[in-house]
Each structure stands twice: as C-alpha cells, then as structure tokens.
C-alpha cells in the first residue's frame, strides 16, 4: 500500500470504553433507552489479567433503576442501575480456553460490550532449559487453523506480538490465521520474541522488510539500491541472516515490496535508482543473508498489481534462483478515493497473476496484501468472491488480509455483513 502505515496504536491502559452495540425503546417519562444508549459509557478496570482475577465494571448514563445482567464469558451476574443510571459491579474472570472473553452489560434494551484479555502463564520456547527465555503464551482460542490449500493470513496494527488483535481476528472469522505478517525497516533487528510468538500460534511469520528509515520520506540516499548493492548495509544484513539462521525455523521474508510503484525509495526511478538497480540490490541482500547461514528463509517477491504507468515487472525480477514465492498486493478501493472505482477480485488480480505466471512459471503465489473498502459496492459480496476466486487458482496458496483502519476501513469487521461473509467464505473453501 502506498501510504506509510506502521505506527502502532497507543496503548489504552487498563480502562477501556464500552462500545454501545444497540439500544432503542419507546419514549416514556424518563429518558428512553435510545437516548440512554447515545450517552451511556462504561469502563472495565483492569481489562486484562489471569483467570480468577477480579475486574470492576463501571457504567454511566444507562436507563435508571433498571435491572439487567453483566456477563463475562459464560458467567452472568444480576445487577441494577441506580437512580442516576449508573452502576458498578465486580466480576471474577472465569476459566477460559480463549484469550479474549466478551464482557456484556444488558440493561433493558441497551447492550454494551467489550473484551477482557486473559493473560496466561509465561512459557519457555527454548529447547535447552539453561538457555531459556520466557515469552507470553499466545492465543488459546478454540478457532482452528484451516488445512485448506488456500491459507488465510492477516496483518494487524500491533504486529506479530499483538496476540489480542490476532485473537480478535480469529474470533471474527472462526479461524486462526496461519500467516502473520509484520513490518520492519532497516533500523530494526530481527525479533526472536515475535518469531516465537507466531510459531507458538501455529502460524508462519511473513516479515515485510523495508530498506528505508520509516518517516524519512521517499528521498533517502543512504538506502538507495546502489548503496545497498555496494555493501553499505552488509553488517546489518549479516546480523539479520545470523539471527534468522540461529532461530532456524521456516520464515518468509518479503524484501522491498510494491517495487513497481513510485511511492517507496527502493523503486527504480526514484531516490537515485535507475533501471535494474532494484533487482541487483535484491540479489545482494539475498546473497548476504544466505551467506550468514539463513537457509530457512523463503524469499517473497511482491509487486503491486500492475497499473497504468507502473514499472514493468520484467526488469524488477531478480531471477528464479533468488525467489521462492511470488506475490501481489491489491486493494479494492471502491469509491473511497477520488481516483478509484469498484473492482471485483478477478478484475483486480487477473492481469497481475498472468504476468507472474509468465515471469516465474511454477512458483508458488500468494496475495500478500489485500482488503476492500465499503464505499461503492457490497464488501460482503466482494469478500465472498475473493475467497472463491483465489481458491480456484491452483497455484495461489494463500492471502493476507490488511486488517487496518487507515485510508479507509480495510478491517474485516468494517461492517457486520463483511465479517459474516468472510467467515462463511473461509469455512466453505
């Protein structure tokens, strides 16, 4: 995607606002449920902790003197609002096999809901106990990882360690993603904790490795392809290779994606790069990382879907021996931007897939970034069509959903119909 989107959402702390899901009632002498729903707020404090701990739910602005329930997981507690429409009650976190427990307050016809995050005991991921490091146990959701040929993956704002975000996606679609994509620039080292966390989920890490400094703009001469090929960053590349080799498990590495566009400084035609520079830099990066012992890496070459005046792919491909997986990034922007129109999945991907098959015959293909806007058509229908379309492509082995609220609402749950459609489409594939 063109715009930079790697800033992590600020941590909300231990207090979270309850989201009002519904509320309507006839007008009476006291404020209606609908009016209460428009002003009701609540907090859950703390909003994370172990099983058996206590969390206090405080509500304000709900219907007055109204009986109802607060539910956490499968446990419900009767309660009643005071004359001012407020309430406060303590909940004990029940035993759980999932990291996210829904917490729902229902008073009359007003329902508010949020999630409590269950923290599980830390576990060691080291084979040798004397070399052990502790990492937080990730998801224990009951949602499965599909055995379908077409793998489902996701990228979320918090990255590979944001297990609550990944769990929330699993709850939405009733499937744990088998690919978790994260982003790194050239100022960051390999995070073994992230690799371990994703592996503990049963998933594969797909790291998008961007040769620039985030926030530095498109003109960054220090990261020109010529400088990379000349060895200016070899010490850094070697450290990456050594770290990945030491870790030793399968990992997918997506270097310099969307190189056929003009919005990143590694593309030919910008930042001092000329024709052929990108492919030469790719080969150099590959060789340095492999020389450091990282033979466990699958190299993912990932252009944007071709568009009018995009750089031809033929001059950007580093060669079959340097690439393990080819990929495409493609979004249905709908009418969310002034320049965009609604595009069905086949319209979006047909031409790019044909070019990949000609350029890299026999290579595994994935869709490394995709999502749809709501504006301009039915996102629910688009989601259904996407999964069906990709499942029909015998050489496409997976897709990664860009679950972000950014230029538009790309998230799976931008609407209830979108969530339901993707859930059903994944189950049917």
TrEMBL record:
Residues 1-25 form the signal peptide. It comes from Salinibacterium xinjiangense. Pfam families: Glyco_hydro_26. Residues 40-63 are annotated as: Disordered. It comes from the Bacteria. This is Glycosyl hydrolase family 26. Residues 129-425 form the GH26 domain. One of its GO terms (biological process) is substituted mannan metabolic process.
């Amino acid at each position: 995607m063109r715009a930079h989107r790697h800033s992590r959402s600020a941590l909300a702390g231990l207090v979270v606002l309850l989201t009002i899901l519904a509320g309507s009632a006839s007008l009476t002498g006291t404020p209606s449920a609908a009016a209460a729903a428009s002003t009701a707020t609540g907090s859950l404090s703390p909003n994370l902790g172990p099983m058996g701990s206590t969390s206090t739910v405080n509500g304000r602005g709900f219907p007055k003197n109204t009986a109802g329930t607060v539910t956490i997981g499968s446990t419900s507690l009767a309660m009643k609002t005071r004359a001012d429409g407020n309430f406060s009650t303590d909940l004990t976190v029940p035993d759980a096999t999932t990291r996210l427990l829904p917490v729902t307050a229902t008073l009359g016809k007003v329902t508010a809901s949020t999630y409590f995050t269950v923290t599980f005991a830390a576990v060691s991921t080291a084979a040798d106990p004397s070399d052990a490091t502790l990492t937080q146990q990730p998801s224990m959701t009951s949602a499965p990882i599909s055995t379908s040929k077409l793998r489902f993956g996701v990228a979320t704002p918090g990255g590979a360690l944001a297990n609550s975000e990944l769990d929330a996606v699993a709850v939405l679609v009733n499937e744990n993603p088998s690919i978790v994509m994260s982003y790194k620039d050239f100022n960051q080292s390999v995070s073994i904790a992230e690799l371990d966390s994703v592996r503990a989920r049963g998933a594969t890490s797909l790291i998008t490795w961007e040769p620039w400094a985030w926030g530095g703009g498109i003109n960054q001469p220090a990261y020109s392809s010529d400088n990379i090929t000349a060895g200016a960053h070899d010490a850094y590349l070697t450290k990456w290779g050594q770290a990945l080799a030491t870790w030793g498990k399968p990992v997918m590495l997506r270097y310099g994606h969307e190189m056929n566009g003009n919005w990143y400084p590694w593309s030919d035609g910008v930042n001092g790069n000329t024709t052929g520079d990108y492919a030469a830099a790719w080969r150099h990066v590959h060789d340095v990382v492999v020389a450091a012992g990282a033979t466990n890496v699958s190299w993912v070459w990932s252009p944007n879907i071709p568009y009018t005046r995009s750089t031809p792919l033929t001059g950007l491909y580093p060669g079959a021996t340097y690439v393990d997986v080819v990929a495409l990034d493609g979004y249905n922007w709908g009418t969310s931007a002034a320049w965009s129109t609604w595009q069905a999945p086949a319209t979006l991907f047909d031409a790019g897939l044909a070019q990949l098959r000609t350029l890299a015959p026999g290579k595994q293909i994935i869709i490394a970034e995709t999502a749809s806007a709501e504006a301009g058509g039915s996102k629910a229908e688009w989601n259904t069509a996407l999964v069906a379309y990709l499942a029909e492509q015998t050489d496409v082995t997976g897709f990664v959903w860009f679950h972000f609220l950014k230029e538009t609402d790309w998230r799976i749950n931008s609407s209830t119909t979108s969530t339901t459609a993707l859930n059903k489409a994944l189950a049917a594939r």
